[in-house]
Amino acid sequence: MRALFLTACAVLMVAGCEEPAPQEDTIIVDQNRCSAAGFKPGSPEMASCMQTASTARQQQANREQRASDAAAKRRQVDDQIRAEDDAADRAAWDKRLQDSRDEAARMMSGQQQGFSIPDMGGGSDDNDGFNQPTAAGIPGMNCDGVGADQRCDALSAD
Fold this sequence. Notes:
Layout (H helix, E strand, L loop, with lengths): L1 H15 L5 H15 L7 H66 L31 E4 L6 E4 L4
Antiparallel strand pairs: 1-2
Helix pairs in contact: 2-3
């Protein structure tokens, strides 16, 4: 019997150590504030004070929620702007890359304006349909000589 009594006491002591629920905690805080302000427990003034405190707490929670929502919206808009900027940067990069490819293809085919591949053929056995390229047709090159004896240097920018 004594063990049962001690067990019951221990359970009651542990139950008394539990923290109050958050809502109970705020009610206790409000009661203490209103009592400290001079309102008597159970009076209409105390009830009004408690209601005012509850309303103020709810308004504060609403302000915090609106601020949180606004911050989330700003992050969403910033993320969208960043994504659009990234897409525009990728498109510009892709265009530059394609332009470079097109330019390289034109150069390889000898179709760049001001660039020509002269026929270096000499005799009938050299007529294989392929014109040997030479640097003489490249803008910015200074070449001397003809054919296999031709020597070219890039013009200096001085």
